[in-house]
């Protein structure tokens, strides 16, 4: 047997992610890509100019492994202002090369072979491979439409003496739920009862709509010392290619995450860090205006899809809204629907079943609305008979 046939099974057996597969299908079919979650806007000009200025006139050699001091201070100040979370920027804040690296650093810092890790399906695709690479055992909880809420029975079924950590995404991609305090307090109670560390993927924390307010789990009583909070400048500023992540945690947790980070990417582009530090200091009006603009895009796509007969589930946050196909009687799964519309109607979407490893929900499709009006309108025009023709 050749050595190539015994490569690391955690990664060798993984399929291409659904995001890359659908984006490639969009390219192959000259389709509008409402699948992968990136805006078609270049991002705030003043922040981009700050990055350019820092590149031309600033320091371009290795920055501190932990991140530029000015950015770490900006992160601490920002979270203090928005969430009342008091952080020591030098001992409780770290900068990483994106949110996924931040999550990887956190998981590898916490999880050892045999540890059980609670994860909620629909689950972001990087979580499970990294847990398994660490030797951990995912314990999967199935969330369901239309509300995707936590409850006592589901937590009781998975938390036990072997539970080391829980991975919790809030606001939740792909289902676009912003969890209320009631759910957070329930999860916090189980974390404390079973002495569990919470790794919180909160990259969508600023992208919330209507009266829904993001509450970091780390601010719930009893969670300050047992929570690793992950954020992302890419999501806050619609600059997804910059890959600037934040890790915030009490010193004993952050020290170990930092030791993982030093052997993953070690550090992150200093000009982008300087620009993010500038961006985090922007007035509240910027962040509120960003939400207002995205709310308008959400409503535009929602109304358009509903006018075509799609049952839209209300989006509370993120760049996404979901459609539950089950009432339509289409006699096809969410994956079949997505492959059909990218081929026949030149619009790409993501099947939510791809976010499940066990017992998937197979009727829900995710669309990204963080696009220009003309992009959304053209997509709606192309989808105008996607439901009627199939039913007919």
TrEMBL record:
<dbReference type="InterPro" id="IPR015422">
    <property type="entry name" value="PyrdxlP-dep_Trfase_small"/>
</dbReference>
<dbReference type="InterPro" id="IPR015421">
    <property type="entry name" value="PyrdxlP-dep_Trfase_major"/>
</dbReference>
<keyword id="KW-0663">Pyridoxal phosphate</keyword>
<keyword id="KW-0808">Transferase</keyword>
<feature type="domain" description="Aminotransferase class I/classII large">
    <location>
        <begin position="32"/>
        <end position="383"/>
    </location>
</feature>
<dbReference type="InterPro" id="IPR051326">
    <property type="entry name" value="Kynurenine-oxoglutarate_AT"/>
</dbReference>
<dbReference type="InterPro" id="IPR004839">
    <property type="entry name" value="Aminotransferase_I/II_large"/>
</dbReference>
<dbReference type="GO" id="GO:0030170">
    <property type="term" value="F:pyridoxal phosphate binding"/>
</dbReference>
<protein>
    <recommendedName>
        <fullName>aspartate transaminase</fullName>
        <ecNumber>2.6.1.1</ecNumber>
    </recommendedName>
</protein>
<dbReference type="InterPro" id="IPR015424">
    <property type="entry name" value="PyrdxlP-dep_Trfase"/>
</dbReference>
<dbReference type="GO" id="GO:0005737">
    <property type="term" value="C:cytoplasm"/>
</dbReference>
<dbReference type="GO" id="GO:0016212">
    <property type="term" value="F:kynurenine-oxoglutarate transaminase activity"/>
</dbReference>
<keyword id="KW-0032">Aminotransferase</keyword>
<dbReference type="GO" id="GO:0004069">
    <property type="term" value="F:L-aspartate:2-oxoglutarate aminotransferase activity"/>
</dbReference>
<dbReference type="Pfam" id="PF00155">
    <property type="entry name" value="Aminotran_1_2"/>
</dbReference>
<comment type="subunit">
    <text>Homodimer.</text>
</comment>
<comment type="similarity">
    <text>Belongs to the class-I pyridoxal-phosphate-dependent aminotransferase family.</text>
</comment>
């Amino acid at each position: 047997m050749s050595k190539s046939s015994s490569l690391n099974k955690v990664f060798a057996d993984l399929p291409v992610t659904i995001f890359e597969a659908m984006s490639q299908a969009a390219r192959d079919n000259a389709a509008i890509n409402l699948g992968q979650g990136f805006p078609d806007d270049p991002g705030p000009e003043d922040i981009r100019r700050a990055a350019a200025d820092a590149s031309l006139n600033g320091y371009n050699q290795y920055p501190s492994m932990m991140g530029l001091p000015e950015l770490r201070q900006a992160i601490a100040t920002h979270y203090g202002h928005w969430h009342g979370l008091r952080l020591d920027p030098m001992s409780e804040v770290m900068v990483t090369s994106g949110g996924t690296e931040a999550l990887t650093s956190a998981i590898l810092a916490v999880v050892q072979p045999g540890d059980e890790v609670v994860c909620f399906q629909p689950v972001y695709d990087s979580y499970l491979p990294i847990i398994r690479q660490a030797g951990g055992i995912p314990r999967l909880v199935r969330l369901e439409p239309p509300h995707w809420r936590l409850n006592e029975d589901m937590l009781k079924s998975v938390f036990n003496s072997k539970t080391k950590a829980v991975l919790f995404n809030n606001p939740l991609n792909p289902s676009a739920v912003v969890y209320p305090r009631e759910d957070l307090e329930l999860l916090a109670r189980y974390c404390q009862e079973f002495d569990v560390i919470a790794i919180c993927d909160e990259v969508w924390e600023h992208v919330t709509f209507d009266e829904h307010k993001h509450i970091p789990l780390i601010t719930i009583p009893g969670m300050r010392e047992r929570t690793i909070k992950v954020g992302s400048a890419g999501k806050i500023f619609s600059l997804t290619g910059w890959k600037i992540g934040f890790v915030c945690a009490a010193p004993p947790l952050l020290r170990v995450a930092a030791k993982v980070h030093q052997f993953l990417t070690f550090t992150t582009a200093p000009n982008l860090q300087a620009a993010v530090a500038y961006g985090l200091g922007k007035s509240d009006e910027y962040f509120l205006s960003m939400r207002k603009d995205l709310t308008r895009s959400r409503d535009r796509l929602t109304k358009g899809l509903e006018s075509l007969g799609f049952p839209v589930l209300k989006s509370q946050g993120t760049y996404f809204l979901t459609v539950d196909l089950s009432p339509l009687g289409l006699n096809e799964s969410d994956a079949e629907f997505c492959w059909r519309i990218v081929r026949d109607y030149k619009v790409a979407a993501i099947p939510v079943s791809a976010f499940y490893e066990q017992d998937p929900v197979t009727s829900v499709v995710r669309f990204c609305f963080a696009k220009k009006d003309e992009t959304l309108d053209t997509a709606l025009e192309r989808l105008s008979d996607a439901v009627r023709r199939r039913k007919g």
